[in-house]
Amino acid sequence: MSGRVIVITSGKGGVGKTTSNANIGTALANAGNKVVMIDTDLGLRNLDLLLGLENRIVYTIVDVVEERCKLKQALVKDKKNPNLCLLAAAQTRDKSAVTQEQLVDICNKLKKDFDFILVDCPAGIEQGFQNAVAGASEAIVVTTPEMSAVRDADRIIGLLEAKEEIKSYKLLLNRVRPNLIKSKDMMSIDDVVDILSCELIGIIPEDTGIITSTNKGEPIVNDDKSPAGQAYQNVARRIMGEEVEFMNLEEPQDVVSKVKKFFKGLMGREK
Amino acid sequence: MRDIFSEFYNKVLGFFRQTEEEDKTKDVACNRLRVVLMQDRTNLNPQLLERMRGEIVDLLSKYVEMDREALDLNFEQEGEQIALMLSIPVVRAKEEAEIEATLKAEDEKKAALEAIDKEDSEAEAETDEVQEEEESEDSDATDVADEEKSEDGATEEPKTTEEIKKPKLKKFEKSE
């Protein structure tokens, strides 16, 4: 078995890398794959929080690299799905505690036992990024339809292009607000894809459910009713090779909601 | 009271008004992004682009008579490729004799400068030899190499503007 190593990166911070990583990983595991997620944001770890595993971390990636434990001992199993594992980052060290070669080594070892290795990348283009990308052969670039995020995503795409090991990269457009796109206050999906000229792997709508699911430490992908959850499911299916149509994100506009909106606007309460 | 009424009136009108006069901000964003990404990707800010444009116009003017102001220089994106698109409005073709004359004058200028440079470098080599003899106890092979290097490029001592210009020309010729 040779697993696929996919790095989830963005350049810009706060666009949804870790959230996407947690959800895509969970969705892939739910579909029967053996998945390991690696948090390389040393010093500022968060993947454990999103999965609700923060109290179960015994050994971290730094312990593995400094040979205080075996790689297997550092893999934390998910609460619900035994197919899903986490290799946590160290919270008390920084990005210099691990080298690119060590990351490559870990990814190569994990490839033998897992179908998918999802590497969560920290924001930026410095050593954290270089480490995260080192062992990967595919990349998912996460961005939102906002100027700073798109600009940084473009830079990241440029850097990924220069790396021979990265054979393919796809775009994940996150926090999309269809109403703002309609009123031309937000860049459309086509605009972003055109500007970055990158193939799309998924569109995730803005969903307040993300906040509550993070509060609970349960990835939103387990909630069938949430739009973001469904979108992440589709991303996982596309990664597995299935052709899935992109969701129609527009909310149904019936007369009652239109009238409600009109009165809301009158009273000055916008959107 | 009057304010609430006028606001209500405007909102009702706004509800029925179909056309939007002001530029929607997403178009502003897209345009700004395209420009800034082009600059980011090619490291060409507006000043550098302008200078490049001027140099291209000068170069092409040697061969064709063109409308210097109407030369169009743009970056365009075709899929994944960024292409530099140049549009040159040609007013008339130059006579062959005219082109030859311009090029000949340029070649003569270059040759003259080369000759001066050669004289200069020979003179500098002589003074270096004299300096070497004076510092014979301290100098070794690396010092000589360093002096030759500094003569080519960096200005370590204050020089006149002429001397500063010459090293740049030397580099240009050597690369040919």
Structure summary:
Helix content of chain A is 38%, strand content 16%. In chain A, strand 3 (75-77) and strand 4 form a beta hairpin. Chain A is α/β, with parallel strands linked by helices and 271 residues long.
Structure explained in plain terms:
The complex is a heterodimer of chains A (271) and B (176). Chain A is α/β, with parallel strands linked by helices. Chain A is 38% helix and 16% strand. Chain A has helices spanning 17-30, 47-50, 61-65, 100-111, 127-134, 147-161, 178-182, 189-196, 209-216, 227-239, 255-266, and strands spanning 4-9, 35-39, 75-77, 84-87, 116-120, 138-143, 168-176, 200-205. In chain A, strand 3 (75-77) and strand 4 (84-87) form a beta hairpin. The longest helix of chain A is centred in the middle third of the chain and has 15 residues, at 147-161. Chain A is globular, with a radius of gyration of 19 Å. The termini of chain A are far apart. The mean pLDDT of chain A is 93. Chain B is mainly alpha-helical. Chain B is 65% helix and 12% strand. A two-stranded antiparallel sheet of chain B has the order 1-4. Chain B has a two-stranded antiparallel sheet with strand order 2-3. The longest helix of chain B has 39 residues, at 96-134. The A-B interface holds A 147, 150-151, 154-155, 158, 181, 183-188, 191, 195, 197, 262, 265-266 and B 8, 11, 15, 24-27, 29-30, 32-34, 36-37, 40-41, 77, 79-80.
The radius of gyration computed from the alpha-carbon positions of chain A, rounded to a whole number of angstroms, is 19 Å
Q: How big is the Rg of chain B?
A: 30 Å
Largest sheet of chain B: 2 strands, antiparallel
The dominant shape of chain A is globular
The SS-based structural class of chain A is alpha/beta
Spatial strand sequence of the major β-sheet of chain B: 1-4
Note the beta-strand portion of chain A.
15-25%
Distance between the termini of chain A: 50 Å
Work out the helicity level of chain A.
25-40%
Largest interface: A-B, 19 and 19 residues
**Count of strand segments of chain B:** 4
